[in-house]
Every structure is written in structure tokens, then in C-alpha cells.
Automatic annotation (TrEMBL), chains A, B, C, D:
This is HD domain-containing protein. Residues 65-184 form the HD domain. Coiled coil: none annotated. One of its GO terms (biological process) is dGTP catabolic process. CDD domains: HDc. GO terms for molecular function: dGTPase activity. SMART domains: HDc (SM00471).
Length: 448, 448, 448, 448
């Protein structure tokens, strides 16, 4: 059956809604969307938090990838509806279903605390997403196949950016796509960070399809500009927050320790659902049984491990007592950083497990990199202009990495009330360490 | 040390804040509050969702008891600040710390999906809360003891309503207390349910202490009235939602099955952290290791149990495929309900495990019950008037239970598209069952 | 041309929007709507404030009837769009234009501070609205006539409730219509009164046409109930606020004085734009030149009138120094009220000009009065149930007038710091007056 | 009496509040503030709209300078409270009253549609503000003098930036002061422009006094940066909107015409309250009788003037039919602009009255101009860093004027549907005019 024909017979007699605090309602008008939401693979996203360790800094940010995925779907639906109404010559209506499905499913392959966990298992969530869509054993695949045998492939090709229609691809992944638009709004809502707000409804009015993809009417320039700034602000103030990264470092070190123990010594209590990943031998089915709960429960169990390191790191994570950090200048203060790591390592701590460098960096916008489609504004006569040419603010952020480099160590070394406490065996080391900390940064005390 | 003196030396040089999407900021001005938040027992509340199974109906409502507890603290702090400023003759400032601590800790004893789980283990969260505060082994107890040896007792007595100062008790638990004010606002925010909103800042202006407790200035009557209506609306529309209760019933049945298996046959895979509870022999320490993750992970493991019932119920819960329900009139249609249960039980289903009656009921406001302190309004000259006397709306809700009675069954029996599906072995039973369902309620088809 | 055909050729190639703080955007898809907005009669509504004297109590509430009219249009448009999509059998699509136009124009005849001014000139805004629509001299009439010669009549008949289609009439005026839904939301937004919020988007989902008008799906009952309560709250807390009514009384007395002077003595400075109304001989054209500015400027000029009473009352209004008030029990304390009026009148004040009784009353909901269409809920099978039968809260408000009776007097008599001031010639009268004021109400001090 | 002592005895027993939709409540704790608000000069601000002609583009933006002034007071109060609590060594508490009064009164001298009207009368609102404060005939002066005979002078000196305490001056006027913080939030709220939102509560946490004025803690850098961007966005999208400027140009031309007629020919209907200004001979008392209503009523009367130009321009303004505009490149296309003006002038239009150039420009931030205090961030050790050094975004906006140059003409020349209308005598001129309009800008069609 053609996607077109399927779309018509698949329509629900009455639209169904999900109440959403960000978009008010998520509107579903096709049975296939409902059925995708009801699959066990999609329901699993309820058990994966959207922001990973940021919930430990912004306590309101406890929302899941499930909510976010519905939001991306809803924004995409609104855009597609508008395209069908206003741009019948530029937009192909037979793209409707594949676009909506890709929007809904684009995060399907995320696992618990993705960024950290993926490093441990050496894979990534985009690969998992397409695997889940294409595997014949998933409910997702079964539902998608109802449209046509090739439909799962089509949906996957949007996510891998190989789909032949550039409009569809750019709606789902580009520098201003439905994914980013939802997560900025949603993360701002749940953290309480007002600077993440931008004028979504204005952007949804000026976005438009054209031959080579997606552009924005020129008069909407400031709304797009403001979106770039909001995104930048969210990275600087929320996503890169030092405390969240302290939890990430703690999690990274404890998973590293657990895996080493498993592989080298087999010392720690086995945990059925994680075993395949420590063995580096897992299937999609194994992966789909993972969620935040599984990881947290394993860590819960490890707090009583016989291995003192694993037990301590697990306790730090479970009870939110992360490493603390201090920033330094890359390419200048590395030697001091090494000196500080040694101070820590010389005490009871294992240097590799208890000190860590963490760098954050984001490219708020770029128009030169091959891998990034530039954002284009369109004049009344169809001429295009690249965003940073029209906006000095965006130009100031373009092509520059933003973020910082931080050294993470046990918190004792960075608490300022050390001296008020009873005399400590670490006092000397603490003082030596603190010599290099000036205005909350690592600095060479002899320079400047 | 006197609480008063401790309070002064315990003040932070600079207040610390937590960003909160509901109250903007949570303001902390005492070290003891920070230290309580940092205990492992309080951090555990991050892993307990506030609304239990309601998250499966309102996908935004994924917030934890941790957020809520901070919110209750913040509302209480605002009230206490105002009392100190405006009512120096009626409010005893030495009550500050005990009130704030009780506000922060009042939910400490909640476990995973409290209402359902507590039924299985035969205890309740209020008991756990005081146990945690009073046990000498907890970090909470240690921090509280810093104020004075008796301070943990004082805090606990607020929660058990035995504290001698009725103002303190009523701030934390009464028909309009800081707990309810926070959860209504918070749950409304996260579900997106606008009807839960009421004028918190107005209520915080008209609340006042008097000799026998807490009252509200008469001119604030309509704000209090609106709070009662908002609370009623949240119960009717959110807390009693049939779909959430369907998940609750599913969870109840699966835990019941798991415990039976454990006790009678020892058939299912052991799960260290739950074992003490199935044995009915647990300590506070055992309890403090529980959280939503532990329960969800156990259910995750049970989806592959050898016991077909446990496996099916676990799968229903994990993948959000709950029982469906239909309302009936109590004291009138019980015999039909039994007939319908038999129809289900006569098929492959176990009647006790796969059909269930669930009743919800709430008393929005009462002024006659001994156990409930009435809400009082105070005139300029100090005279009191009970709320429902002043408000016909509140009178209409007073003393009446609201809620309904529903029969839960496997969803096949209540889906309306049964006939469109391929011919089913259940068709006849389905038709028989449906005969009694009129306008989405159980009705006797022969009566009108 | 048929309305249907006109509607098609009248569509704009691209919808136009107006940014609105309440509804985000007002969406216009027909040229006729744009042209109506651009008429001078509709633009005049920018110069008429929506809430009259309430702006003097709630300083944010400075919005105009122009904003409100756009809002009523937008809500109606959303409903009509939904009816066309979901109820093709119940809703006649040829009603679209007449419904939208009536929604937009329903308040066209409002003048400055309507309620007060209308009493002085002895007419009412509904009459003016239809006159403006039907008069061949207005731009409004000209634009409407483009659809068909009879179209102005059709639009007017919706506003007078004589249109033959009950659905159209009830959308624009009934106990839950687009007019009320907009003003509650809007007034709540601009005053800052949170209790005015209700779940508009939910109501817009459950509203539905049926043979005899408009009903609401049964499952939306609580949303409708909450709307009734919000409306009640806005009346009690905003619309009936004693201070706003104090400004209303002041305005009423000064207009009364000005008109008397004009008619009897011709003493005050003429003011061209008002003269026709003091002569009781005005045309529609005269009326359309009035706005808040004209009235305020007249009052501004009258502050320097030779007539001491007019000058004093005008100064009180212009500088916001209204009469103050005290409530009393009707049918019980009238004799005391008269006594109090005499105390005031015996001093330098004219009793008729400087004391006034003001009664407010609203019927939040009624189902018995012929003039009011009851609100109906509809079950799945089409059966109807009247709202107050389903909701005890609504029942408690039904059929009862709410509001109060207040005596307004010069503020000196009701300020409590009288005694702290220098000895006053009024001290004795003040004391006599105050004897009857107990707990901010008029009471007989010898009773009870 | 010392300001200090006065402050203590002036405190209200109970704080009074004004409900505000932006700040929730405005909190007043001193009688003097209440009394200032109650003066007739301050009440006049209710009749002066905050945004002048922007209300004609953003219909929600009908708020007054009264609301804004209360908002500036409230933000200042919050800052002063925080300074007193947290910076006892850096902030002088005897500055409290003078700071609050200056905040409240800083806009007192604004007249109707200030920017345009001031050009006509050749004065400015800052001069009027200090005149009103210092004049012995105003109620404002009388209330302020209660503190001490010199107090009015002190308040005025804050507004003229001559007060000796730089902290007080910078709180009220600098590149990030209470005035701007309120108007950005407020204008964003009432227009519905989300991009105007910034994190006010965060800024209120990081602002701090130091020896030479006001600085911001370094960790609040991004919040300050975001404020600069929000301000820029509001200028680009709201304050500089071409349609609002079209109304401004219309108003400017009509006032210019009216004054010329008055002075040269005495032709138009006298209007008592405006006469002194057309004579260029007015007192403070004359000025204080002006408000938006007076101007609008004059224009209302002038729509029937015998002078055809005055009547047409007045009608355009009253009925919101402003000039339309097109942008051009300054220093490049002036000759084309002149040519276009001639095309208009050669028709029935007077060139000086019916064509007009309007340039907008704003300096979002500057750190070099003597007249502007740079924004400083402060490190933990007290070192300062200028904002644009720390933020590349701010650097990109620093020292550059933003805005544009537009030619305003009768709308016939810029409407695109000219050709669809009946054959017009202007067709040829219209075509000639349109030749130079490319992509909505004036361009030389022969170049590029």
C-alpha cells in the first residue's frame, strides 16, 4: 500500500490527546502513532531520564525521554500541518507519516545515562535507534511494517540522514530541528531556567520548505537568532554545569571500576541484566532491558561491595556526593593539573579512579563544517542568506567552541571550611593543593 | 544548647538556593537544613516519584518526593518569616527550626509506589518517617541531634501531631497545610492541569497564627475557598484517574503474586533487596535501600519468570498495558459486578489476579470529624467563623465523600473495536460482558 | 453571492496574525475579518477599556475592548474549526462567517465606562451594537454588506439571539460562551488574579454542537464546573471589588451633577462631544465619537468648574480619591443606613451627591430562568444531563444571587486614623458614625 | 529629622500591597510611599501609556507608566532589602528612602506620547520630572518635604545623576538599572513577546554594591549577558517596529500641522488644555493637566477641522491608518529616497506633511562612552572585569548602533494589491514608485 493511501485509512475518527505541560496537548490523528507509543520499546523511554545527571543539580529536571519524544513529534506535526496548508508546491504530503514516525522515534536507542554508559560499552544511541527500528524482533518494526515492508527502512534513513528528501531530514536533525526545539523548551520548563525560553510559535510561523531543505522567512530572523542564544545559554548554564559533570565523572569511574572487576577479577556481585555489557557481548534484546532503574539498582547493590573503591564510588553516586572541580586553562596549566592529581593520588586515593579531567564543549552554530547544514533565511524573492551573515550576535558565536576544562577531585580538596574542622591528616596536602586555586580557577601562583 | 541559640549560630553567612520550577528558588539560610538535605536518607527521596502510577496517565508528572519536600520547606519558611515579622505576639520564634525541619522531613518515610507497596508489607510511611528520624543509626538523626539530644523527638512529634504547639502542627498537617499547598501547585505544574492552580501568594498573606492554631483573615475567604475547589478538582481529574488506578491494580496484583510465590513455593528469582519484605522481616535499613528503581528492576526481571501469571502481570506493568475499568453504583450493581468477574474468571484468567474492584474516595473538607481541624476565618476583632459557614461552595463539598467504584478487568473486555478484529475465541464472552456496559458504566440492561 | 461561496473566495492566501499575550496569536484567514478590524468603528474599541473602573483597583487591568473582541473572535474560530473537522453532520459550515463576524463585533456598541454612562443616557450597548451594524452609514455595515445585502441583518440577529441557528447563538451568548471564556482568561491575565484561570483548552476539546445548540461531552464535566467556579471567583474578587465600585459611584454622581447643571442651569463649560447626550438628543455618529478619553478630558476640564460640587467630584475621580464603603444586611439595617446618610448630609455635604447605595449581584449559573439556556452535558449515547444535576459545586451556586450591598460615603468617615489627626470639626460626627461599624460592616451596636 | 529616623517612624504597622501581573505583588512598607502614590501628579501616570504608539502594533501593550513606576519601585525595594541583609559593610542603609522615592518617581515628568510631543514643545520629560519634584506647588513636593526640607533635592539629584552615592544613582539609571529591568519584563508580558524575558530573579541575586557603584558577581555573567540580548531583541522586534513608527510619524505630522495653524493662521478649533503649548508659553501646572486622553480628544475634534490636511492626518491617527514605510541604506540611497518623496509630493499630497524619514537606533551596550557606566562583574577576590570582555555575545553588540532608516509615505504607494483595484489615477506614479522597491527595501534597480 502506498504511504499516502495508508495515511488516509489510518486516520483516527477522533483525534486522541496526551496532556503535556509544555505543549498543552500532544495531538495524535493516526492509529500508527498510537500503536508506536504503545510498543514496549517506546514505553521503555519512560524509564530513561532526559537529562542524565543534570537532575542532580536542577532537581525539577526529572523528565524522561518519553515526554521529550512526544514533544518532538508534536512540534513536527505542527510544522507538517502548516507546510501542507501553506506550501502545497514545495512540500510533498506523502512525506507526512515517515516524518512523524522519525520524529517520534529518533531517541529510541537511548540507554541509561547515555553519554557515560555508551563510553563503557563502546556503542552509541543512534546506532541502537536504527537497530531497534530495523530488527524484525521488535514491536516497533512490526508496527512500522504495516505501512509497507520498506517503511522501517525509510524511517531509519531519516534518522541516519540518508533519506532522499532533505526537508524531512532537516526537520528531524539540523542546527534548528524539532528535536532541539523541544528539548530547549522542555529542559527550560523543568529546570526553571527562563533563559531557555525562545519564541517557538514565531519560529513555527516562519519556517518553510524549499527545494534544498528548510529555510526561515527573513522577517523571522530575530526569532531564529534568539533561539541560537537560548541554546547557548542552556549549554553554558545547565548542560555544562560543573556539579552535574561531577556526578557524570563519578558514574564513569564507578562503571569503569565495576567492569574491570568483572573482567579481571570477577569479584563483584553479578547483576544479570548488566552482565552482557561487561562481557562486551550483548544483543538488542539485552539492551532493551536496560533503563535508569537497572543501573541505579546495580549501584545500590554495589554500595555494599567488598571492593572498597567500587563501594565508595557507588555510595558517592547514590547519595549524591560527587567529585568537585576547578577549571583550568588548556594548553597552559596542564603541568599544575598533573601536580594536583599527584597530591590526591599520593594519599589514600587511587589517582585514576579519584581524579579526572572533564572537558565540555559545544559549537552553538556553524556554517563551514561539512557535517552541519547552515541555517538559511529567505527573502521575499526566494534569495537565501546564511544566518550569521544577517546576525552579528550569531556571528560572534559561530564556529567557536564554548565550554571549559575542569579537574575533578574528592570534595575534601575544594571545600573552603577545611581549616575550621578538627586538625586533619590532610591539612598539609590541602594547603599545598589550595595554593594553586585562585578565584576558583587553577592558576600558577608565581605568575601574574 | 537552646534551639534559639543554635538557630543564631547556625545561620549561613550567605543564603544558599536551589532552583525550583514551581517556587523559582528554594531559600536556605541555616546550615542544618543543608546538612539534612545532604543526608543519604533525604537523597533517597530523589528516587521515589511523588505521584506513583499517575505518571503513566500524565507523562509530565515524573517529579520526585525530593522536589516536593523542598517545596513544603519553602512554603513553610515563607510563612514563618511572615509570622516573625507581623505577629511577634502570637508566634514563638523559637519554633522556627523545629517547624522547618518537620516541613522538610515530613515525607521521609515514603517508599516506592507507597500506597500499593504499603498494603503488601503492612506498614505505613508515617511510621517509617518517625522511625527514620528517631533511629540512632540514620544520618538524619545525627544531624538533628546537633541542635539538642531531644530535637529529633520534637521534630517527630510535629509529624505525629503530638507537639504541644498547635500552630506548628497545623502548619505541617491540617486541611490546609504547607504539604498540601505544595503538592497541589507542584502536581498541577507537572501534569499541566491548570485547574490545580490557586492563589498561593494570597493565602500566604492572609494566613495567621492565633492562640489555638492557624487561621485566615476573613478577607482572604475566597482564596481559601478556591484552594478547596482546586484540591477537589485535582482529586477528581488527576489523582483518581481510572488509568492510573489501572496501573495501581496491576502493581498490586503482581506484588501479591510475587509474595505468594515467595512464601508458598519459592519459585521466582530471588531479589536481595526485596527478600526481607516478602519474609515480613525487615529493618529500617532494609527499607531505606528501597526505591522506585529497585521495584521496577524486580518487575523487569519477573517479566521472564517461570510463573506465567507473574510474568504476564509484570509485563503488563512494565510496558504500561494496565487493566481497564468501568464504574458502577455501589449498593446496587454488586451482583452484576460479580457476574462480570465470573465471565473473566471462566476464561483463561485467574479471577483473583485478573479482576479487581478499586474504590477511590476523598473528603475535600470536613469540620465535624474529630480527626480533622476545621479551617477558621478570623474577623478584624478576632472572632472566628468556620469556613463552610462562610462559603456555600465549600459547604456543598463538606463532609461528603467523592470518588467512585470501578471494576478492573483485562483490557480485551472493554475495548470497543473487538468486532473489527479477527474472529476471536472470546467473542461470545465479550458480547455477554458488554451487555452490561451502558454509557461507559455498569448497568442492568433490563432496568432503566 | 452565497455566504459559502463568498467564504471561499474571501480566504487570504496566507493567514495573518495579531500577537496576543493571552492566546499567543489571533489567526485571521479571511479578508473580511481584516477589513472589519480596520474600520473606524472597530478601532474605536482601542479607546474603551474593558474593565471600566476596575483599573483603579487592579492597575494591570488597563486592556481595551479591542483586545477582548479579538480574543472572542479567536476562541470562536478555534471552536468552529474543530466543529468542521469533528462534527460534519451536526454543524453547518455555511455558518462560519456569520459566527466569526458576530464574535468579533459583539461588543461594538460599548461606550466609555459603559455601565455608568448608560444609566445617564438611558440606553444600552447591545442596542448600539446592532444599530452600528445595521446603520448604512458605518464602515462596518459597508464591509458586512459585501457578503450579501442581508448579511448585516444576519450578524445582528446573532447578537440579539434571534438567529435561527441555536448553535451559533449559544456560541456567542449563553452561560458559557466565547465572550465569557475570553474575558475571564483575559481579565485574570491582566489583573494577575490566578483564580480566574480555568482549563480553556480542555473546554475547547469537549464542546460540541447538537440539534438544539451546544453541549459538552460528559467527561469534560469537571472542566465546565471549574469554569463556573472561576467565573464566580472573578465576580467576588475582581468585578465586585468595593474600591472599583467607589470609583463607579463617584463617576455616576459627577455625571449626574454635570447633566443637571447643563439642563437646569447651563453653568458648566460646554464640551462639544458630550453636549448631545446631556440634551438627550444624539445620533449614532455622536455616539461613535465618544471614548474613555473624551469622558476623562471632560472631567479634567470640570475639575476647575465654578460649581463646587462638580469640581470636587471631578477631582475625586481624576485623582482617584473615591468614596469609601461599608457593607450592610439588606432588609435589616436600612434604618441605620439612613441614619448614617443623614450624619453625612448634615455636614457640608449634599446627601444625594455624597452618599450612595451600591448593590452588586451576579447569578453564577441558573437553569430555571427562561432567559438563560442551561448548560448541558452529553453522554456517549446522546442523552443530556443538566450541569447542576451532575455537579454539587455548581448546584450550590445555582439560582442564588451573590454580591453585597454597600453604603458609599466620603472617605473621612471610614478612615481609622481619624483620631491621630489634629482635632477636627468632624470628630463628634465621626464618632457617631463609627458607632455603627463593627467588623467592617454596618451593625446595630445594641443587638447581639 | 534624619532620613534614618524618619524611615523608622514612617513604617506601616502592616505592609500594604498592590496586585501586579508582572511581580505578583508590589510591597509597600512606608507611609511616604503610599502617600506619593496617592498624589495627583503620580495618579496622572495612569493616563499616560508606557509604550506610546507601540500599542497600535501590539494590542496587548496598553499598560501605563503608573504600572511601570510601581514595578521599578518594587525591583529597587527587593535589591535594597537584599543589600541591607547581605552587604552591611558596602551599603549605607540611610539611603533606603531616597532610593525608593527616586525609583518610584523617575518617570513622573512623562507626557502623552512623550517622544513625539516633546519634539513639538521643545522640552523633555527628565526636566519635567525634576521640576515637579522641586516645585513647591506640587503634592509630590509636599509629601517629600515631610522627610526633611532638603529631601526633594536629594531625590531629584538621583534622577539627574548628581547624587553623591554612585550606588544609588546606578540602581536608578545605568545600563542595567531597575527602570530597564522592569520595562523589559513588563513590555514583554503585555506584548506577549517571549524574547523579552530574562532571569530577573537570578540578577537580583548576583547584583551587589561596591565602593564605586554596582557590580555583579562573576558567576552571574550569563544572566547579565542574557539581559543585554533580551534588551536588544525588544528594541529590534518591539520598540522599533515599523508600524508603530508609522503611527509616530503620523502623530508628529499632525501636531506639527496643528501648531503651525495655531501660530500662523489661528484656524483650528481652540483646545484649552493644549493652547499654552502651541503658544510656547506653559507652566508646570499646564503640563500636569496633559495626558493621553487630552491629546486623543484634541485629535478626535480635529478630524472635523476645516483644514483638510489636519483633518486627514487626524483621521489617519484616530482610526489607525498610519503611513507605511520602506527601509533604505543610509549614505547610499538618499537620492532615490528624494525621488520617491517627489513622486508623492507631485500628487495631491504636501511633501513635508505626507512623506517623512524616520531613523531608529539603539546602542545595546557600550563601555567607552563617558556618558555610560560600564557593567562590571566581580570575582571572588574583588577584582572587576568589564562585561564585554567576558562575553563574546555582548562584545558583538557593544558600541554598535542598531536600527534602521525608513521612508514613510501614504499607504497607497506600498500596498501590493494596487493592480487588482479599479484603474486608478495613481497607477503610473505607483508603478514608478514601485520600481525602486526590491525585497521590501529601497534599491537602485539598475545596480546589482
Amino acid at each position: 500500500m502506498s504511504a499516502d493511501r495508508f495515511e488516509r485509512i489510518d486516520r483516527l475518527p477522533f483525534e486522541k490527546v496526551f496532556k503535556d505541560p509544555v505543549h498543552d496537548y500532544i495531538h495524535v490523528r493516526h492509529r500508527i502513532i498510537l500503536d508506536l507509543i504503545d510498543t514496549k520499546e517506546f514505553q521503555r523511554l519512560r524509564r530513561i531520564k532526559q537529562l542524565g545527571t543534570a537532575q542532580f543539580t536542577f532537581h525539577g529536571a526529572e523528565h524522561s525521554r518519553f515526554s521529550h519524544s512526544l514533544g518532538v513529534y508534536e512540534i513536527t506535526r505542527k510544522i507538517v500541518d502548516m507546510f501542507e496548508r501553506n506550501y502545497p508546491d514545495e512540500w510533498d504530503p506523502s512525506m507526512r507519516l515517515v516524518t512523524l514516525c522519525a520524529a517520534l522515534l529518533h531517541d529510541l536507542g537511548h540507554g541509561p545515562f547515555s553519554h557515560t554508559f555508551e563510553k563503557i560499552i563502546g556503542s552509541d544511541h543512534e546506532k541502537f535507534t536504527t537497530d531497534i527500528i530495523l530488527s524484525e524482533e521488535t514491536e516497533i518494526h512490526e508496527v512500522l511494517s504495516r505501512v509497507s515492508p520498506d517503511f522501517p527502512n525509510q524511517v531509519a534513513s531519516v534518522i541516519t540522514k540518508e533519506h532522499k528528501n532533505p526537508q524531512v531530514v532537516q526537520l528531524i536533525s539540523s542546527q534548528i530541528d524539532a528535536d532541539r526545539m523541544d528539548y530547549l523548551q522542555r529542559d527550560a520548563f523543568f529546570t526553571g531556567a527562563t533563559y531557555g525560553a525562545f519564541d517557538l510559535s514565531r519560529i513555527l510561523r516562519v519556517i518553510r520548505p524549499y527545494k534544498h531543505g528548510i529555510a526561515f522567512q527573513y522577517q523571522g530572523m530575530h526569532a531564529v537568532e534568539d533561539y541560537i542564544v537560548s541554546r547557548f545559554q542552556m549549554y553554558m548554564q545547565v548542560y555544562f554545569h560543573p556539579a552535574s559533570r561531577g556526578m557524570e565523572v563519578t558514574l564513569d569511574r564507578l562503571l569503569y571500576r565495576a567492569k574491570s572487576l568483572y573482567q579481571e577479577e570477577n569479584l563483584y556481585p553479578h547483576f544479570t541484566l548488566l552482565d552482557p555489557f561487561f562481557k562486551d557481548k550483548y544483543t538488542i534484546e539485552d539492551y532493551l532491558r536496560l533503563d535508569d532503574s537497572v543501573l541505579q539498582t546495580a549501584i545500590n547493590l554495589w554500595t555494599t561491595s567488598d571492593d572498597a573503591y567500587l563501594s565508595e564510588l557507588s555510595t558517592m553516586f547514590l547519595n549524591r556526593r560527587p567529585f568537585k572541580s576547578v577549571a583550568y586553562e588548556k594548553g597552559q596549566d596542564e603541568s599544575i593539573v598533573e601536580k594536583l592529581r599527584d597530591i590526591v593520588g599520593n594519599l589514600k586515593y587511587d589517582k585514576e579512579l579519584f581524579t579526572r579531567i572533564n572537558s565540555s564543549s559545544d559549537l552553538p552554530y556553524d556554517y563551514k563544517l561539512k557535517s552541519k547544514t547552515p541555517i538559511h533565511l529567505m527573502y521575499a524573492d526566494g534569495t537565501l542568506i546564511e544566518l550569521s551573515e544577517a546576525s552579528p550576535i550569531v556571528k560572534s558565536l559561530s564556529g567557536n567552541l564554548h565550554g571549559d576544562h575542569r579537574l575533578y577531585v574528592p570534595k575534601e580538596f575544594l571545600e573552603d571550611n577545611q581549616k575550621n574542622k578538627e586538625v586533619s591528616m590532610f591539612q598539609e596536602d590541602y594547603d599545598e593543593f589550595q595554593k594553586y586555586i585562585i578565584n576558583d580557577r587553577i592558576k600558577n601562583p608565581n605568575k601574574n
